[in-house]
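DM from R.C. (forwarded with permission)

"hey, sorry to bug you on a friday — could you get me a structure for this? deadline for the figure draft is monday and I only need the backbone to look sensible"
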Amino acid sequence: MKRNYFLVFACIAIVTTSFAQRAMSETISYFNVRTPNNPLEESIKTYKAIVETPYTLTVEELNVQSLAEFEIEKANYVQVLEDSEAEYEERLAGHDDEVKKAEARYDKEMADFKDLSLLERLALTDQGKKPALKVPAKPRYVEPREPVYVQPNLDDHLIFDNQVLADNVELLGYEKGSDLLIIINITKMAFQDNGGQTFYAQPTNLKVMKGATVIDEKTFDDEFQFLTSSNSNTINLDRYEKNNVKKIMKDIGTYINEEFGFIPVTSRITIEFPKNKKREYDVLENAKIKAISAFRKMKEDASGETRERAISELVAVREIWKSELAKVDYSDKKAVMNKDIAIMIFYNLLQVDVSLKDKAQAEATLATFQEQRINLDLSYDEKNAFTKLEEQVYKL
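My reply, with the result:
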């Protein structure tokens, strides 16, 4: 019993999730890629985006216009002061008359109030309707503020740089170049009022081409849809339109990557390997090191070339595992290459086959595994692990 407790403690101490006593493991996170809905030809390695919009206003033009308006505002400031002073003098002159009118109105209301019976006066008083003198406040002069220049808020203006929009179009898994052409044509937003609400449409055409051949074409926001529960004459139309252009570009980015791009997906893989204190498993330990190194290359922003190199390295490691698997003696538990080593290798092979989405190789590995299933004498946990891998193979 003490020996069993010691073995359990030893397994926990080396943080192993392995199948056998001698097995260890290393888990690594990497970014796999989702297969696109419509993969492009293998000859296509690069892309170029062109964005066309109806917006011609530039930041420079807006600043010039804003400064011109500010100069006009400054030039008119003297007149604004004179007008405000004249208005104040006029209100001040009429203040005495307003006070006299208020007092006369109060005197009349009080006379009428006193003519009422006591009960009527009490009732009105309780209701807060007893006459009260309300003298108009004396006008106070507030001098208009002197104009101060404020930089225009670019969010309130339809300013777009078509080249910047094009540069921000990203087709994941491809480099910038000229193999593929992505053309985006954005039109002006149309607004429509209906029942106190505002609806909009902004037809935008997307065309994906290789040379003169159109691979795909799609229109976005071509039908009127709800925008806001206010009338169009009460909202900042330019701001809504600018935000919608950003939304359209985001929608197009999502669409082209789902259709043609290779979207990175966070994944994890655990590589099994045996203890190697006696240096009997150098080949398997080196294979583990190479496999982990290959998966580390698969970063979120890894280029297609880097991914291809990592895949080539994994394919080479897979061949090492297959070669080592051929050395297994399933009947001799004390053999260096026994069934426990075979379980580790099969587990690694199936995981890598699935991660590479290599259906043919995964099915071949699974077939070999099933041929040896009786000899492997799997535990309950091992059976569950391989059943899950088998299900993943069938989904490829």
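R.C.: lifesaver. DSSP finds 13 helices and ten strands in the chain.
me: no worries. Strands lie at 23-34, 46-52, 175-176, 180-186, 190-194, 197-201, 204-210, 213-220, 225-228, 263-274.
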